[in-house]
Amino acid sequence: MTKLRALAVAVALLVVAFPACADEQTSRHAITGLFSPDRETDLRTLVEKIPGLKLVSIDFDNAEAAFNYDPAQLFPGAKPEQVAELLDKMLKEASRATFGIKPLSTKPRDQLTLVEIPVVGLDCKACGLAAYEAIAKIDGVERATASFKDGLVTARIDPAKTNRAALEEALKKKNVKLVEGIDAAGASRQ
């Protein structure tokens, strides 16, 4: 038996012995709701409760996660183009809409502008989530965080689509108090 044929037989035996693994795939998605480091634990705990879905890794800095699952088992009868939408729906339902997925950013990170907005009054996770949601939904916001510990809301934005003023206005509409006249580094803003 040639080495190639022996390898093919071994792979075929593995597929027969472990059919659940045969069609599993790992896919990477941008995660909505991953606005502070402690939310990583929340996401891990949530995914552990969803049969057939395994969290492989989390990249907090880019708000991305990799999942391993068999689409045919997790979403029977779904077409391949429906899988991401169904995974988003599953995460939203399981988390009471505090987590979801969206497409990965196509804009290179070096073409994004970092905006840091000092805030006061974010004294709990729910307040942080509200501040995060206020800006994360704005077109042009590629990544957002909200830290009640640091008193800071940050966003990586596409400057062709949005700006700091739009972020500040969205926060004010959600009654988030901004530290006026000071940027995140503590310097006065003109």
List keywords for this structure.
190 residues; alpha+beta; 4-stranded antiparallel β-sheet; 8 strands; 35% helix; 24% strand; globular; disordered N terminus; disordered C terminus
Detailed description of the structure:
With 190 residues, the chain is of the alpha+beta class. The protein has seven helices and eight strands; from the N terminus they run ααβαββααββαββαβ. A four-stranded antiparallel beta sheet has the order 2-3-1-4. It has a four-stranded antiparallel beta sheet with strand order 6-7-5-8. A hairpin with a 4-residue loop joins strand 2 and strand 3. The chain is globular and about 55 Å long. The N terminus and C terminus are likely disordered.
Put the structure in a nutshell.
With 190 residues, this protein is of the alpha+beta class.
Our estimate of the beta-strand percent is 15-25%
Q: Give the proportion of residues in helices.
A: 25-40%
Overall structural class, as computed from helix and strand content, comes to alpha+beta
Question: Mean pLDDT score, rounded?
Answer: 86
Q: How is the quaternary structure best described?
A: single chain
The profile of the biggest β sheet is:
4 strands, antiparallel
